[in-house]
């Protein structure tokens, strides 16, 4: 068994344990393997171990991997900041986008989604920590943005995403995830049929699952520490 396959099993056990501790079904939580900066061979190893959903932060890298693995039937999720001049590649090669933070990006994705592909599944990114360096719309803008995105052709609004400020404190980890869940519940109460909370990474997936995550985005715990040099 490869190291990646072993790591996948360990992450799946963490997800199952966290789900059971929260009184949830483990199968209600999807594992998204974040393969940014890692070579195609790592994706192939994870796919051989049964992993089907992969996340990428960089448009060109992700599109190239999606094309190279087309015969494997993988689901590719774009989870990074998205600029207007890069939306076409995402619209053409990804199944999901987690990081819509303004209407202009959603409109471009909608207009550029090929007619022969299923609707692009999308989440609205919320800046729950209020960090100037983080992408995401303000919490008070989320409902209006969801309503506008839900009316666009070629897209299917699924839910919300957040990347809170990292912390090792358990209570501090849970607070922004709870805030995102409360925004999600408010938007659902307003009539939006959301079903997805994309939150939680390698260091805080247990806190995210305790607060209702349905997709956890895991990179380091599967592929190892990244070297950006």
If you had to describe this structure to a student in words, what would you say it looks like?
The chain has a single domain (3-223), classed as TIM Barrel. Helices cover 41% and strands 17% of the residues. It has helices spanning 3-21, 40-48, 59-68, 87-93, 103-112, 142-150, 170-189, 205-210, 220-223; strands spanning 30-34, 53-56, 75-78, 96-100, 120-125, 155-161, 196-198, 215-218. α3 runs parallel beside α4 and α4 packs across α5. The longest helix has 20 residues, at 170-189. The radius of gyration is 17 Å and the shape is globular. The model has no long low-confidence stretch (mean pLDDT 95).
Brief rundown of the structure:
It is built from nine helices and eight strands. With 229 residues, it is α/β, with parallel strands linked by helices.
What is the fold's blueprint, element by element?
Layout: H1 3-21, E1 30-34, H2 40-48, E2 53-56, H3 59-68, E3 75-78, H4 87-93, E4 96-100, H5 103-112, E5 120-125, H6 142-150, E6 155-161, H7 170-189, E7 196-198, H8 205-210, E8 215-218, H9 220-223
Parallel strand pairs: 1-2, 1-8, 2-3, 3-4, 4-5, 5-6, 6-7
Helix pairs in contact: 3-4, 4-5
């Amino acid at each position: 068994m490869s190291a990646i396959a072993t790591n996948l099993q360990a992450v799946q056990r963490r997800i199952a344990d966290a789900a059971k501790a929260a009184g949830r079904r483990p199968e209600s939580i999807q594992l998204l393997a974040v393969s940014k900066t890692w070579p195609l061979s790592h994706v192939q190893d994870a796919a051989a171990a049964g992993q089907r959903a992969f996340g990428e932060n960089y448009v060109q890298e992700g599109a190239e991997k999606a094309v190279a693995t087309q015969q494997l039937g993988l689901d590719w999720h774009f989870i990074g900041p998205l600029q207007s001049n890069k939306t076409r590649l995402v619209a053409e090669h990804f199944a999901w986008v987690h990081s819509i933070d303004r209407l202009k990006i959603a409109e471009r994705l909608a207009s550029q989604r090929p007619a022969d592909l299923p609707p692009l599944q999308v989440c609205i990114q919320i800046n729950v920590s209020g960090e100037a360096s983080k992408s995401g719309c303000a919490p008070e803008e989320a409902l209006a943005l969801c309503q506008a995105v839900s009316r666009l052709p070629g897209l299917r609004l699924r839910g919300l995403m957040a990347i809170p400020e990292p912390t090792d404190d358990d209570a501090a980890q849970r607070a922004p995830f709870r805030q995102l869940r409360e925004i999600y519940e408010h938007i659902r109460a307003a009539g939006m049929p959301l079903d997805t909370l994309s939150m939680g990474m390698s260091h805080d997936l247990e806190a995210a699952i305790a607060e209702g995550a349905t997709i956890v985005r895991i990179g380091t715990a599967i592929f190892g520490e990244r070297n950006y040099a």
